[in-house]
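Example record

One chain of 412 residues, shown exactly as stored in the release files.
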Amino acid sequence: MNVLVVGAGIGGLTLALELHHAGIACRIVEAVPRLEPIGAGINLLPHAMRVLDRLDVADPLAAVGVETRESIFFNRFGQFVYREPVGRHAGYGLPQLSLHRGDAQLTLLAAVRERLGEDAVELGRRVVDLADAGDRVRATVEDAATGARATETATVVVACDGVNSAVRAQFYPDEGEPRYSGVTMWRGVTPWRPFLTGASMVRAGWLASGKMVIYPIRHGVNGAGDQLVNWVAEVERPRSARRDWDRTGRLEDFIDVFDGWHFDWLDVPRLIRGADRILEYPMVDQDPLPRWTFGGVTLLGDAAHPMVPRGSNGAGQAVLDAHALRVALQETAEPRRALLRYEEERLPATASVVRTNRVRPPDTILKEVYERTGDRPFTRIEDVISTEEMAAISEGYKKIAAYDKDLVNRAE
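Predicted structure tokens for this chain:
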């Protein structure tokens, strides 16, 4: 058996490490000619870190990221709403890491090349067609530079080619446009002095009047002791840009919403203006698919379940997909039955996350505060919402996304 992995993102690279760990031959083809540290911050929650720890890449990832200590909520006036410890600080056996997506990707790429060989990842090669060929899959692969095409075969093909998956489009050509949530986000990274604990993930405000997510993703970026801080500005907008993680955004399209956000612990507009580049992304998803698997081909990660980026859980679900697929291939004698077993486990689980991210992710806490106060300052948060109710919102999401503490620690 050999596996062709389409896409060298976090899901595809994790899958390659999983397959190598199980002794299953694989190779990756990636459409871009160079892998560069593009994008902004991501989070790897303890359920994903459990998988990555078993693959012996948790320590290299921790070395390029920040171990998050707490998740903390404020309203848009800078008033404290709720705090909870996360990762090992909350009693998990593994940390929660915040890191630059590019740092995570390049760390996993280095591990793949070290273990599988330098030629395990073929860059500048795009899969343009897949066809069943008995017990094999025939892939037409195009050289991005020359346009030359070649035919390759594999026992299994796994599409890890992201939210704009060409493989998904082959099987669902009439799927239609992504579902826009009504919110657009702008992202950037800025060198900044440590704030709060120096390892705090901040969520502040609410979408109707502006919301921010802010957290450090890299230590020691200069001689002044600054961190690299990731920020995400989310605002309700009637239109949506094309879905592209590397699309450049404009400061003037959103900065007016946050110009008054000067808190004791952070000057938000100055932080935003300090970024070298701003990225714009519509908060979109697509309805869960009826199936991922077609003969010897299946989908994984964003190609299978693009979700609204709320809940700090997108990369983690791709990592869980990779682990489940490896287990299915290792434990099921017939590869195509293994793909169906993987789909049966992961499709309903990720569909629940997609739907929950639409209506009740952890930042629903801020929605409740916004609605109950009429978007005005409060005197006592206890008069607005109880700590127990906020904790219940957070714990409910953890159970749906499969990272509640008891489940993760029991699986170690």
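Notes: The chain has a mean pLDDT of 94.
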